[in-house]
């Protein structure tokens, strides 16, 4: 709806000859030059002059009175789009309003019935991966992927594609097969305007502020290791990729590329061959596909007031093929770095758990209670731990622990221009850049955070 109103110094008069579609015959005085310009403007923009339509006493039409009260004019107007003519029920002057002005208040009464506006929204797409439990469907899916990959092989062999183009071709191969063989889950459309819609705007704002913390004012002095660890830096082998694919869990939500783990595990031999070629190019160019750098944030309630953003834990839905690459890198890092970590650290380490530490602490507590002795336990809870890590400091820590530059470059590139979108009430917010922290839901994140904690404990104990 378009509404024009103001002090226009336009007298329109009661003669509407030539302007029948723009004004009525209830105006005051005679049309002046400004009045003619207003009428022409309204005609051009399909509007009507409301004060000329409704019949009122003269005192309820005159919007301006001279100081000597001898001259009255109707020079303030409210105009409305012609489409909404029936919505305007009255326009009149309201005398007695206290305002420091020689103009009177002009009121318009409207009655509108708003139509529901259908807008295009970003929603998540999920496929019916349960169909892959059927052997026939799984075999059909595997053969379809194999045939499409063989058709794509000629383009890949030319070697003139960049990383993003090659990934988009591979992504289209998998997603089109999912759409053809599995089909998509159906969701009931919800109203576009609701409290949840308004909440989604607020959630996006809060997450953006939380995930973009300023860097430390006094960054720590971290020296690189004198000797680089003997970690394999060759391109991933098919055996490593196949092992990583086997580690992918079923029943997990897919990332922005919409490729579920079930689609990759449906034909492991073909998937391994596809990813081996893609990972080789990534390894050579040290460049991660742009789409792998975007994540969908899902908020999970912890405790307290659910209206407060701080009372949610957040995980990030990432590309499943990207997770396969991260699994390969993680397996290599763990083998080389494990010997340099403190023995006290049990979490996020191979063949270890915190069970022994918990049992030891429990025995200490029981002994203290039995002997009625004082016991002091210092518990440290890092607020938004994964989100608070400074990345520049993190890259220095990787060098400090002797991780080869090749692997550091790959990890670092995966965080360059990293973007997020928040899932709220089934809808996606606009994308925003994240400049701090490690990704919740990334396989490498616990290991990267572990290095930071290990370094802190070595410095403070």
Automatic annotation (TrEMBL):
Protein name as annotated: Reverse transcriptase domain-containing protein
Domain Reverse transcriptase per the UniProt entry, residue ranges: 281-461
Xref: Gene3D superfamilies: Endonuclease/exonuclease/phosphatase
InterPro entries recorded: DNA/RNA_pol_sf, Endo/exonu/phosph_ase_sf, RT_dom
Organism name: Ridgeia piscesae (Tubeworm)
SUPFAM superfamilies the record matches: DNA/RNA polymerases (SSF56672), DNase I-like (SSF56219)
């Amino acid at each position: 709806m378009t509404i024009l109103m103001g002090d226009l110094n336009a007298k329109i008069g009661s003669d509407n000859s030539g302007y029948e579609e723009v004004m009525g015959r209830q105006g005051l005085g005679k049309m002046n030059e400004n009045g003619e310009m207003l009428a022409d403007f309204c005609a051009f923009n399909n509007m009507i002059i409301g004060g000329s339509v409704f019949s009122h006493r003269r005192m309820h039409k005159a919007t301006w009175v001279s100081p000597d009260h001898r001259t009255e004019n109707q020079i303030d107007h409210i105009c409305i789009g012609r489409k909404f003519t029936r919505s305007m029920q009255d326009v009149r002057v309201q005398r007695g309003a206290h305002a420091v002005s020689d103009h009177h208040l002009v009121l318009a009464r409207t009655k509108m019935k708003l139509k529901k506006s259908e807008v295009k929204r970003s929603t998540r797409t999920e496929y019916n991966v349960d169909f892959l439990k059927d052997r026939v469907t799984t075999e059909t899916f595997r053969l379809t992927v194999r045939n499409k990959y063989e058709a794509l092989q000629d383009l890949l062999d030319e070697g003139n594609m960049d990383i993003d183009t090659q990934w988009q071709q591979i992504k289209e191969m998998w997603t089109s097969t999912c759409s053809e063989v599995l089909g998509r889950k159906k969701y009931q459309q919800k109203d576009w305007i609701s409290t949840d819609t308004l909440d989604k705007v607020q959630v996006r704002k809060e997450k953006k502020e939380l995930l973009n913390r300023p860097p430390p004012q006094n960054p720590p002095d971290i020296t690189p290791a004198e000797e680089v660890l003997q970690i394999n830096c060759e391109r991933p082998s098919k055996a490593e990729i196949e092992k990583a694919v086997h580690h992918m869990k079923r029943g997990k939500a897919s990332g922005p590329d919409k490729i579920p783990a079930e689609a990759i595990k449906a034909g492991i031999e073909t998937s391994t061959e596809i990813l081996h070629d893609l990972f080789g190019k990534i390894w050579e160019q040290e460049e991660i596909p742009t789409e792998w750098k975007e994540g969908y944030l899902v908020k999970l309630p912890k405790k307290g007031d659910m209206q407060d953003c701080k009372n949610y834990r957040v995980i990030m839905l990432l590309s499943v093929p990207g997770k396969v690459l991260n699994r390969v890198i993680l397996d290599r890092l763990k083998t080389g770095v494990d010997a340099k970590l403190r023995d006290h650290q049990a979490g996020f380490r191979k063949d270890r758990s915190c069970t022994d530490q918990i049992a030891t602490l429990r025995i200490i507590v029981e002994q203290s209670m039995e002997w009625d002795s004082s016991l002091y336990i210092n518990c440290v809870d890092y607020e938004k731990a994964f989100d608070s890590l400074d990345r520049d400091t993190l890259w220095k820590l990787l060098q400090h622990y002797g991780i080869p530059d090749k692997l550091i470059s790959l990890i670092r590139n995966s965080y360059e221009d990293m973007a997020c979108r928040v899932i709220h009430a089934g809808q996606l917010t606009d994308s925003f850049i994240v400049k701090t922290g490690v990704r919740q839901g990334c396989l490498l994140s616990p290991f990267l955070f572990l290095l930071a904690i290990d370094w802190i404990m070595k410095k403070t104990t």
